[in-house]
Amino acid sequence: MRIGLIGLGVMGWRIGANLAKAGRLHVVYNRTSVKAEQFSREYGVRNAESIQRLAEESDVILTVLADDVAVQEVVEGLLPKVKGRILVEMSTISPPLSIRLAEKVKGAGGVMYDAPLVGTSIMVEQKKLTVLVGGPEEGFQNLKELLSHTASAILYMGPNGMGLYAKLVNNLLIGAYVAAMAEAFNMGVRSGLDPEKVSEFLAKYSSARSPTSELKAPKMATRDYSTQFATRHMRKDLEIIDKEAQRLGVPIPMSALALQLYRMVEAIGLSEKDYSSIFEIYSKFTRSS
Ligand SMILES: NC(=O)c1ccc[n+]([C@@H]2O[C@H](COP(=O)([O-])OP(=O)(O)OC[C@H]3O[C@@H](n4cnc5c(N)ncnc54)[C@H](OP(=O)(O)O)[C@@H]3O)[C@@H](O)[C@H]2O)c1
After folding, report:
1. Which one, 73, 137, 151, 252, has the greatest CB density within 10 A?
2. Does position 197 have pLDDT exceeding 80, yes or no?
């Protein structure tokens, strides 16, 4: 089974590296071609000149792209070539868009899965991601084998779109959780606690500790906002949640507030930085004495 990968950003690069090291990756493509050239040199995997060319050389196509616009552009561009092929779409995008694209892929003779990722870049390197799969159940076992090069849990959530709805459940929670963590962290530091001690407490001993506090509390303590998950992606996910909540008629006061806060983080220039930089909003608006 020949595997092609489109999108060599933070996550795509590392997923590609895992597959290439296992000898499973055949061809890659990235919009900014220098990244694909570099990947090709480092891992000895062919760099395709277009997404259509990549499709011709693949039985399974993985896409790890930024957002709705990117995925729509790429999947529609692939339609003439998807017949008999499997498309595994791993980006976090709007579920209704993904469902529409899956129907188009089916109409063109292919099969599409939504398979969004839970976990950060570090977890890809450790092969500890969780992948939430939506799509036809038959064929899921084959997908599981392929994704096992990068994920420790691959969960079948239901028909097309259900992988993405499960992903929204996760990001609603971590979006609001990290905002609340920044609020708590800032109060702790302002009260005179040593930031390192607050970080250690939140990461290891707090009754609200989690894999997310383990990752993000040290980033707040050191104000090292090197990107694991960009603020703009968290804002994008909370915007998708906002839209879907309107459609479903569910109240989302916590994540709606978090969305406003992440917009403020972007407004102070931290859009590309890790979303734990939300701590800077609390720090900035704290009375100096
Ligand atoms: N980072 C995480 O921790 C994490 C965790 C879970 C889920 N996710 C989700 O996974 C997806 C990828 O995340 P990431 O962190 O890897 O993002 P990223 O570093 O921003 O990479 C985005 C990729 O999409 C490509 N792209 C953007 N717009 C495009 C377009 N119009 N046409 C074609 N390609 C386009 C980019 O190509 P260029 O190189 O040309 O810009 C790049 O390869 C996102 O949906 C994100 O929400 C991320």
Report:
1. 151
2. yes
